[in-house]
Amino acid sequence: MVTVTLPRLLAERAGLAQIEVDAATVRGVLSTLERDHGLAGWMLDEQGGLRPHVGVFVNAEQASCDEPVGPGDELRILPAISGGAR
To answer: Which residue from 13, 24, 41, 43 lies 20 to 30 Å from 7 (Cα-Cα)?
Structure first.
């Protein structure tokens, strides 16, 4: 099982800040979250790719959707931060 830590907005929608997911890739984890935890459309686009405003890290390393994951891995989802003052 992969331990997933959600940012506040997604945690509020899913009703959990951490979720255990059984999947072989990052895309599999995100697909499961979208399907089973009320997060459809929040992380993956219509083609199954990562939305541009979402960052995914596996064991503190930035990861792509095709990155393999396994038991004991920790996956964090982070929304992109933009804007600010000049």
So the answer is: 24
